[in-house]
Specification:
Length: 574
């Protein structure tokens, strides 16, 4: 043990479990080439939400929800869809029957129907398929030793015979139906001896007489995930290299997510030669789920590879899936969760704000719309707009936030371009407001806080009425009446110097340290905004005002610093 690591044994019974390499023979590592490959195109995605996802639901989908899910999947662009296990229930059977009705199945979509290797179930599957113009019949049987011994009670030879018998029955029932193709899954492939999985798959390739124009699908599931993803990749590459009639076999994977690495397993499997991926939207499915097709596809998108599925309305997709599954998508779910395009922390917000500003400039320089410009914004792996999110949720403010995020919200919502020193000043105001509650503050609340601190402090204000006007070339005059009734009068070479002269004559020392302003292109009340930093009675304050022009707003802003000072003074004296 290193002296810098002070961890101690946990007392957990970890000794009860064996590592993957002791549970299954692993193919030789020397052959592997997947680590140096890249993903350059989308695989064939096959959603199994209506079968594997559905069988994992406490309340399986009713016909209406099945129809809704199927419509969503076709709308998104999936072309091969597992639609059910028709021999398992009336519901699944009837749904396949619905799809067999004339015009029900889109021309370019192939349904997959799932069956165990039992004569009665296979017959019933074909009964459901009657009239379907095309379909994949998906046969499965567990092939791993524990399942052979404990569940099925067959040795290797007997199980192979059972599978071949079922596959032969399927072939006979499909005779004269060229639209029917075949899929085989050696369930728990990842715990099956590699030579046995290969032998059974090759037998079926021959029995079903696979050809490039009528390929068979060998789907190799990690039914229960048992190892790091590199091990699964080695298992897949072994099959990829040794399967017979490779150009007549579609190599498919079906990772589950027991270790939380289903996505990694699928990605490494694709590097290792897989061409087709079965999974579910947002990772629904048995136990911790099937691999999440949304994450997989959008991961490709982030690499500049078209996922060939439309995720541009991800929130809409999510709503439909949540409705069908009656399960929520978590807030941190990759790409789709409510919080995944949002930064609360100050330095991230600062970087995102700067990144978005640079992105807008770059798009303008390139002469393309921002949604077409190359993306390189810190902390945002994709442009939220790609998946239909707006930028309003990108930055949210709480006590962890800094000036950058706060300034971003005021800029994006109200069009205010706060000078840097005002940003710093206001961040302290926000920090004081949020530290107490620890709660998030919305853009509207931020604006209220901003108004109270800089725009309307000490309202109704020290001055009852005032005016400023040019008095000659390069000269302005300021006149006003204090609420106490005292009159103010001053002149200067601009409205602000005239105001400070009037205040000085009344005994209030106001020094304008800086001012800035701009016109407003948003819906904030006013056409221009001015920011004034002033030292009033020895203390530096900021004032902000909206007005019809920047000079007019500047006088208001300066007065707001005076009002704040006078309010503070009367508060202290009272
Ligand atoms: C990894 C996966 O997702 S596999 C898919 C699992 N999905 C489902 O099970 C959902 C739908 N299933 C069902 O509705 C039912 O299980 C049915 C209708 C298919 C079968 O129901 P039953 O006939 O009552 O059998 P039961 O559900 O108890 O299944 C166990 C039997 O099937 C056998 N079996 C399990 N898998 C297979 C298979 N792939 N091929 C042939 N037989 C199998 C078992 O050995 C056991 O046989 P036994 O009763 O002789 O011991
Ligand atoms: C493909 C089938 C058999 C399956 O759902 C699995 O093995 O997880
Ligand atoms: Mg499964």
């Amino acid at each position: 043990m290193h002296p810098w690591n002070r961890q101690r044994p946990s007392g957990m019974p970890s000794h009860r479990y064996r590592p993957a390499h002791e549970r299954v023979e692993l193919p030789l590592a020397a052959e592997r080439s997947w680590p140096s490959r890249r993903l350059t195109h989308a695989p064939l995605w096959v959603p199994v939400d209506l079968r594997d996802g559905n069988q994992a639901l406490a309340e399986p989908m009713d016909p209406a929800r099945k129809r809704t899910m199927f419509a969503l999947l076709t709308r998104m662009g999936f072309k091969e869809i597992e639609v059910g296990y028709p021999s398992s229930s009336r519901l699944d059977f009837d749904f396949v029957r619905e799809l067999a009705a004339p015009g029900a199945l889109p021309e370019d979509v192939t349904p997959v129907v799932f069956t165990a290797a039992r004569a009665d179930l296979i017959e019933r599957t074909f009964a459901a398929m009657e009239g379907l113009p095309r379909a994949v019949v998906h046969l499965y049987t567990a092939t791993a030793p524990t399942w052979r011994d404990v569940v099925l009670g067959h040795d290797r030879r007997e199980l192979r015979a059972l599978i071949l018998d079922a596959a032969g029955r399927i072939a006979r029932l499909a005779e004269g139906r060229p639209g029917v193709r075949f899929e085989f899954s050696p369930e728990v492939f990842n715990l099956t001896e590699p030579d046995y999985a290969l032998e059974v798959c090759n037998d079926l390739t021959a029995l079903w007489d696979a050809a490039p124009d009528r390929p068979v699908i060998h789907n190799l599931p990690a039914t229960v995930e048992i190892s790091t993803p590199n091990v699964y990749a080695d298992q897949i590459e072994y099959m990829h290299r040794h399967l017979d009639r490779r150009d007549a076999v579609i190599l498919s994977v079906h990772p589950h997510n027991d270790r939380g690495t289903g996505v990694a397993c699928a990605e490494l499997a694709l590097l290792a030669g897989a061409q087709r991926v079965e999974g579910c939207l947002f990772g629904n499915g048995e136990r911790t789920g099937n691999v999440d097709l949304v994450t997989l596809a959008l991961n490709l998108h982030t690499q500049g590879v078209d996922p060939m599925i439309d995720f541009s309305d991800l929130d809409g997709i999510r709503r439909v899936v949540e409705h069908c599954n009656r399960l929520p998508v978590p807030d941190r779910h990759p790409y789709a969760g409510d919080l995944v395009h949002t930064a609360f922390s100050g330095t991230h917000q600062d970087a995102i704000g700067k990144g978005l500003a640079r992105h807008a400039k770059r798009a303008a320089d390139l002469g393309v719309p921002p949604e077409q410009a190359p993306w390189d914004v810190p902390y945002l792996p994709i442009d939220p707009a790609d998946v239909g999110r707006d930028y309003q949720a990108v930055i949210r403010v709480n006590s962890q936030s800094g000036k950058g995020g706060i300034a971003y919200l005021l800029r994006s919502r109200y069009g205010l371009e706060l000078p840097r020193r005002l940003q710093i000043d206001f961040a302290a105001v926000v920090q004081r407001a949020t530290d107490g509650s620890g709660e998030e503050i919305t853009a509207e609340e931020l604006w209220d806080l901003f108004r109270a601190a800089y725009v309307t402090p000490g309202e109704p204000g020290a001055l009852a009425e005032w005016t400023t006007a040019p008095a000659g070339p390069g000269e302005h005059v300021f006149t006003g009446t204090l609420r106490s009734g005292r009159r103010l009068h001053g002149t200067g070479d601009g409205p602000l110097p005239a105001l400070t002269a009037a205040l000085a004559a009344d005994g209030l020392d106001v020094e304008i340290l800086g001012h800035a302003g701009h016109t407003l292109g948003t819906d904030a009340a006013g056409e221009a905004v001015a920011y004034v930093e002033a030292r009033v009675a020895g203390r530096t304050r900021w004032g902000v005002a909206l007005g019809t022009s920047v000079p007019a707003a500047s006088v208001h802003a300066a007065l707001s610093t005076v009002n704040a000072a006078l309010a503070a003074r009367s508060g202290a004296s009272g």
